Automatic annotation (TrEMBL):
GO terms for molecular function: microtubule binding. Pfam families: Arm (PF00514). This is Interactor with COP9 signalosome (CSN) complex. Keywords: Repeat. One of its GO terms (biological process) is regulation of cellulose biosynthetic process.
């Protein structure tokens, strides 16, 4: 029978690349020994190259869909590799498993393991290709909200793709837009990241979110991201002004939503902390900002 790791090992790698055996593999995913089978297959996969066969990939996806009990049986490295599948069902199953693993972890070990095996880059690619956007954005935000991960080199390379995703006219998934904006705000809690050259693109992207009929929640998230961006960077202040952000946020100070109004006023106060506005805005805008600050703060 094929219910033991040793029997599986004797089959060799070619067995799992043989499409004719897919039905057998799918069957194995639904029998009582699926837990043992999943554990062995996962260990086997870690030693393979990135192009493992459709049969194994499909079997693992079937195991994940069969029961959430098996989420713990598939190593993080394998789940991250499954995110690169051409099957949306497989990607969705792997994303669900990774989210459960992360939420069940009392430390940041799982999140760090994901980042260490390339999850951030793969999730950004899923967003770029508009695949499983809501779930991918949710997991990406979780990772980028991790302080230790924000200190790694990979996060710097996430700024531009996230900004481009928010500026992409094809990005229509509202929840994904919200989470991507939140992820940018997470990144710029790190002062060093807020000072990078790519942060200018994030300024434009955040202003664009505010201009594109956002919900009140999205307004607050975008404004908070901009607050983090301008707090320590003169070039980011200029970028916001040049993108038309002053008037956009000035209009939000009069919002009927208290949180939106307060955050908008706080942002304007941050922007008004030096001569940036006087240099780039009209005198009428400066007077309007001054009046708004006096009224709301």
């Amino acid at each position: 029978m094929h219910d033991s790791p040793s029997d599986g090992q004797n089959c060799g790698a070619s067995f799992y690349h043989d499409a004719e055996n897919c039905n057998l593999l799918i069957h194995l995913a639904t029998v009582p020994n699926a837990k043992e089978f999943a554990d062995w297959v996962a260990k086997w996969l870690i030693g393979q190259d990135n192009s493992f066969g459709f049969g194994i990939e499909f079997t693992l996806a079937s195991i994940l869909q069969f029961s959430s009990e098996f989420y713990l049986e598939i190593p993080v490295a394998v789940l991250v590799r499954l995110l690169q599948s051409g099957s949306e069902t497989t990607v969705s199953s792997a994303l669900s498993a990774l989210l459960v693993l992360e939420s069940d972890d009392g430390t940041s070990a799982v999140a760090e393991a994901m980042a260490g095996t390339g999850a951030v880059e793969v999730l950004l690619e899923l967003l770029r290709s508009h695949q499983c956007e809501d779930t991918a954005a949710r997991l990406l935000e979780v990772l980028l909200n991790n302080v230790k991960i924000r200190e790694t080199k990979v996060t710097k390379s996430a700024i531009l793709p996230l900004s481009q995703y928010l500026l992409d006219p094809q990005t229509q998934a509202q929840q994904a837009r919200l989470l991507a904006t939140l992820a940018l705000g997470d990144l710029f809690q790190n002062e060093g990241l807020a000072r990078t050259a790519d942060a200018v693109a994030a300024c434009r992207a955040s202003v664009n979110v505010l201009e594109d009929q956002p919900t009140e929640e999205m307004k607050v998230v975008a404004i908070c991201a901009l607050q983090n961006l301008v707090m320590h960077s003169q070039s980011n202040k200029r970028a916001v002004v040049e993108a038309g952000g002053v008037q956009v946020i000035l209009d939000l100070i009069g919002s009927s939503d208290p949180e939106t109004s307060v955050q908008a006023a706080v942002f304007i106060k941050l922007l008004f902390s030096n001569h940036t506005i006087q240099e780039y805005a009209s005198s009428e805008t400066v007077r309007a900002i001054t009046a708004a600050i006096e009224k709301d703060l």
